[in-house]
From TrEMBL:
Name of the featured protein: Isoleucine--tRNA ligase
UniProtKB keywords: Aminoacyl-tRNA synthetase, ATP-binding, Cytoplasm, Ligase, Metal-binding, Nucleotide-binding, Protein biosynthesis, Zinc
Chain span(s) of sequence motif 'KMSKS' region: 598-602
Location(s) in or outside the cell: Cytoplasm
RNA sequence: GGGCCUUUAGCUCAGCUGGUUAGAGCGCGCCUCUGAUAAGGGCGAGGUCUCAGGUUCGAGUCCUGAAAGGCCCA
């Protein structure tokens, strides 16, 4: 006996029960233990941060991470899945700062770094339970008990080892570069962090006069969108090859004139309708070296400044074509300063305010000083114009402070030195979708810039570089032991975080003075990118484990990780081992809400995963995420869309399963009893589709094609339920057991068991629920769960393309037959005499005969046949097929087509249908047209109800004989009896006594078909005479007849 | 400003190397079937395949350009 299965499914409840079973039997670990000693399949978990609530996008990533390890496990691989947590970094610090109400770094220092970091350590796992709960509920099988944690000493020590390795290869260096800098957080931001905060902002753009030293009546007209950088001005840049002009204009006071230098192309946009006189015209290079009067002299330049320099990056489609240069506040400016040996004026303090030397605005946040600077320039007659400009400007992604571009000393990894290796190793990676490889990721590598590693913060992996306070000798430390040796103290118990590591000092080997650790931490992306090494505490231990699990076979994250984790893994792996870090990577698109809007807290359209899980279950949610669109594409998400999956796919499958179990139990059927089932055509067809499905799904999994591994199953289940099962119902209903019934059970059983395996990686709950009932329940030898089972192999001998094609044709003809019935307004319950079909070739007409029974039954007609071309066709049409003829005759095709259409269709059709060639001539050239190159279509004569699609026609003979009418009435009668049975809550197998009273014509019909009726309704007695004096079960009128019935269990 | 992606029915998506009349599901309207089904079947409305050029006998598909949206980067 199978466990009875209700046709109603409570997905949530079913899944929770399965979860309990998995937990009780520890199926996850069993599935790994199961494969011990087998080939390793290596998966890396990209560590999330557990200091925020997990959302739908995390579910997306996690279910995609889950699917391939499950598949590979079933294929016999050993797949350990070690979880991981990203615990360091600014996001964690920000949370703690918020909690403490801090707004700047000084408050943290005052509070105490040790205490602050302790809170960070706790906060990093604030939502760990939420993460664990969700991970379990969506059946992401990952080992969280052994998860690596980036703040652990062992992890940090491995990261140090990597850094030391880079140090020894001269890949770690301290540089002085202009970086995007958050004055509030007091730290430079990585490119990745900066990119999180771009948005439109309005700033004052100003045009400023810079009078020439040699000719004070002439000024350079200089443009900038950052007035606060003007006190740091040291030069003006012009483009060498752009045309510049000196124009003369009336001064706005009305008196006198002034001369201004600017790019010629900007005259109109700057002066508009105002009349200006062009005094002279010249190339930009002629401006080189021209000296101008400085705007401000707060800081004395230590090198010659205040002159025009040339630079190619000067643009002339906005501004004036003359660009103000402040090397401390722009990457381009800095480069120019280096090239031109210009001074660097640092007018701003690390907290974003002007330094005391900038007397007027000292202590004021620079952006807030803009209006005052503008006012000052105006008062001094140097301001030409100010115009608000809206442009995209970066803001700090955490605290929303406008970023400043700011020259800072910081640490870099010289990734650009290994650019060729980075590019070469990328070529070995399979990217899904493929375009990322040479697109987004490839371009990023090709334009590689050094990795800005340093962070001037508190909670993170400290940069293990010690520097002598006196001679500035630097050393990089690669292990705790090394540090112990340096200091002569056993530092095994040392917490490798600030402030404890900062307290470790030792004597400089060069000069004997004290070595202190440099203040920086490292970028958290370096933490997570180190996980292949650091999760094993390699090379300090676990050498074997590390080597067996490097590189990864499979990783998967959202596309925003291109420059995040994907890059940090790839870069570290390349610099460390010159090897690719991952072989296959699936890159997921973003999640949008049901209307295609990005989910965000501010929009309030964030869907909670639990909302969906509680209602529709994890399987449906997973299935939706897998099948909605290609993985790399963004996908919409809403509870309704998931509900759709449940309704159209899960429930169809479940009902098929429930049907099988119900009838198999009724018949006491068990698998494997009959040696060799005598399969019908329909069975063989389903098995051909089934084994084709196994083949296709397997191929898809091998190619990391999630859509290909899921969508075809939907199509199969639809065929299984709405064709195979519908067509086979009577085989299961009939009483007794015979070979045909056995074949039907065997086929359906095989399909359901196979489906449970094919669905195991994608819908792990329903798959196991079915498998355990269908297989484990009967076979004590079987694995306890589908997830411990082997992936199915398809049977080549079961494949049958011709049979599949034939059945497709049958379905099409049935569909046309239904269409014709619909037109005739004759319901399907009324039998008709005959259906005739027209098809486009000889093979297809054989199909009509072969599947005559099926067609008759499905369309409720007494006979089917091919439409006779000779006697029943009214007109023929020739359709020259462009695919065949076009490819064969190329540009002659249009004329040949015309010639074919000009033939007498009837005569030509006759020849083609006999398999003869057509002879035509075009421009004196003769051609033989083959029968397969022209499609013959016919139209049926009158007297039929016809529906057609292309060459396919279904024609119904709609004249009704008395016999047919009687049979129709009987069918109506039977249906009402069945309805009454259902309403009386009888069991499917209950036998009944049936009493009826009705009008004469119906009564006659019932008498004629008495045996049929008793058989259909499981009546042991059919009585039209002895009407009882009690309330009837049903009274009805139809087709002009009246009917009353009583029934009773026999 | 650069790179990449997307644009096909009201919605979600197919459309293989160019080839007959561009399809499916959902939704909508009408009809129908049913002792597995919250289902199934049929018919109908709904498309200038974002636009403009080009290549070709033939373009949703290939090429060029443009537009809109998205992501990433400046």
């Amino acid at each position: 006996m199978f466990k009875p299965v209700s046709s109603k499914l409570n997905a949530n409840q079913m899944e929770l029960e399965v979860l309990d079973y998995w937990k009780k039997e520890d199926i996850f670990h069993a599935s790994i233990k199961n494969r011990e000693g087998k080939t390793e399949y290596v998966f890396y978990e990209g560590p999330p941060t557990a200091n925020g609530m997990p959302g739908v996008h995390h579910v997306l990533a996690r279910v995609f991470k889950d699917i391939f390890p499950r598949y590979r496990t079933m294929q016999g691989y050993h797949v350990i899945r070690r979880g991981g947590w990203d615990t360091h970094g600014l996001p964690v610090e920000i949370e703690v700062e918020k909690k403490l109400g801090f707004t700047n770094k000084q408050q943290i220092e005052d509070y105490g770094i040790a205490e602050f970091n302790q809170l960070c350590r706790e906060s990093a796992f604030k939502y760990i339970q939420e993460w664990e709960k969700l991970t379990e509920r969506i059946a992401f099988w990952v080992d969280l008990d052994t998860a690596y944690i980036t703040y652990k000493n062992s992890y940090i020590e491995s990261v140090w080892w990597i850094l030391k390795n880079f140090w020894e290869k001269d890949l770690l260096y301290q540089g002085f570069k202009v970086v995007p800098y958050c004055p509030r957080c007091g730290t430079p931001l990585s490119d990745h962090e900066v990119s999180l905060g771009y948005r439109d902002a309005t700033d004052p753009s100003v045009y400023v006069r810079m009078p020439l030293v040699d000719d004070p009546s002439t000024s350079l007209l200089v443009w900038t969108t950052t007035p606060w950088t003007l006190p740091g001005n040291v030069a003006i840049a012009a483009h060498p090859n752009v045309d510049y002009v000196t124009v003369e204009r009336k001064e706005s006071s009305g008196e006198g004139t002034e001369k201004l230098i600017l790019a010629k192309s900007q005259i109109e946009s700057i002066f508009g309708d105002e009349e200006v006189k062009i005094v002279s015209e010249f190339k930009g290079k002629q401006l080189k070296g021209k000296r101008y009067q400085p705007l401000y002299t707060f800081l004395p330049p230590d090198k010659p400044a205040y002159r025009v320099v040339l630079a190619d990056y000067v643009i002339t489609n906005e501004g004036s074509g003359l660009v103000h240069q402040a090397p401390a506040f722009g990457a381009d400016d800095m480069q120019t300063a280096i090239d031109e040996d210009l001074p660097i004026l640092m007018t701003v303090a690390p907290n974003g305010t002007f330094i005391p030397e900038v007397k007027q605005w000292a202590g004021r946040f620079v952006k807030d000083a803009d209006p005052f600077i503008i006012e000052d320039l105006n008062n001094r007659g140097l301001l030409f114009r100010t115009v608000p400009i809206t442009h995209t400007y970066p803001f700090c992604w955490r605290c929303d402070t406008p970023l400043l571009y700011y020259a800072r000393p910081t640490w870099y990894i010289r990734t650009s030195a290994k650019k060729d290796d980075l590019v070469a190793n990328n070529q070995k990676v399979n990217w899904y979708p493929n375009h990322i490889k040479d697109g987004r990721f490839g371009n990023w590598l090709a334009n590689n810039i050094d990795w800005a590693l340093g962070r001037e913060r508190y909670w993170g992996t400290p940069l293990p570089v010690w520097e002598c306070e006196s001679c500035h000798h630097q050393e990089c430390i690669g292990s705790v032991q090394e540090l112990s040796e340096k200091t002569g103290k056993d530092l095994k118990g040392l917490d490798l975080h600030r402030p404890y590591v900062d307290e470790v000092e030792y004597a400089c080997p060069k000069c004997g003075e004290t070595m202190h650790r440099v203040p920086e931490l490292i970028d958290v992306w370096f933490d997570s990118g180190s996980m292949p090494v650091a999760q094993w505490h390699y090379p300090f231990e676990n050498e074997q484990e590390f080597k067996e699990h490097y590189p990864a076979d499979y990783i998967c994250e959202a596309v925003d990780q291109t420059r995040g984790w994907f890059y940090s893994l790839h870069a570290i792996s390349t610099l460390l081992f010159d090897q690719q870090c991952f072989k296959n990577v699936v890159c997921l698109g973003l999640i949008l809400d049901g209307d295609g809007q990005k989910m965000s807290k501010t929009r309030g359209n964030v869907v909670s995963p639990w909302e969906v899980l509680d209602k529709h279950g994890a399987d449906a949610m997973r299935w939706y995420l897998y099948t909605a669109s290609p993985p790399g594409q963004e996908r919409r998400f809403s509870a309704d869309l998931v509900n759709e999956v449940l309704r159209s796919f899960t429930l169809t499958l479940w009902n098929t399963y429930s049907f099988f179990v119900t009838y198999a139990n009724l018949d006491g059927w068990q698998p494997g009893k009959a040696d060799k089932p005598q399969y019908s055509k329909l069975d063989e067809w389903l098995l051909a589709e089934l084994h084709g499905l196994v083949r296709d799904v397997t191929t898809a999994y091998e190619n990391y094609d999630v859509l290909g591994a899921t969508r075809p199953i939907e199509g199969f289940v639809d065929h299984l339920s709405n064709w195979y099962l519908r067509r086979s119902r009577r085989r299961f209903w009939k009483s007794g057991s015979d070979a045909d019934k056995e074949a039907a059970y065997s086929t359906l059983y095989e399909a359901l068991v196979m489906l449970s395996k094919l669905l195991a990686p994608s819908m792990p709950f329903i798959a196991d629920e079915m498998y355990r009932n269908l297989v484990v329940n009967l076979d004590p030898q079987a694995p306890k769960s589908v997830h411990l089972a082997d992936w199915p192999k398809f049977n080549e001998g079961r494949l049958n393309d011709e049979l599949v094609a034939d059945m497709n044709l049958v379905m099409k003809l049935v569909s046309l037959g239904h269409a014709a019935r619909n037109k005739s307004q004759i319901k399907v319950r009324q039998p008709l005499q005959e259906a005739a079909f027209s098809v486009s070739n000889i093979h297809d007409s054989a199909v009509i005969h072969e599947y005559a029974d099926l067609l008759q039954d499905e369309l409720n007609v007494k006979s089917v046949r091919a439409l006779s071309a000779a006697s029943e066709a009214a007109a023929y049409e020739l359709v020259p097929l462009p695919k065949q003829l076009g490819q064969k005759y190329k540009d002659q095709f249009p004329l040949i087509r015309k010639a074919i259409l000009a033939l007498d269709p009837e005569k030509a059709a006759g020849m083609l249908l006999k398999g003869e060639n057509l002879k035509i001539s075009v421009d004196g050239e003769d051609f033989e047209i083959l029968p397969e190159e022209v499609e013959v279509r016919m139209q049926a004569k009158e007297g039929f109800e016809v529906a057609s699609d292309g060459a396919y026609i279904a024609a119904l003979v709609t004249t009704l004989t008395d016999d047919l009418v009687n049979e129709g009435l009987v069918r109506e009668f039977v249906r009402r009896v069945q309805e009454a049975r259902k309403q009386a809550d009888f069991e499917i197998a209950d036998r009944i006594r049936l009493i009826y009273s009705c009008s004469a014509k119906l009564k006659y019909a019932i008498e004629c078909f008495k045996d049929y009726i008793m058989d259909e309704t499981l009546s042991v007695e059919l009585d039209g005479e002895n009407v009882p004096n009690i309330l009837p079960n049903l009274s009805d009128e139809f087709d002009g007849e009246t009917l009353t019935i009583w029934l009773d269990k026999a």
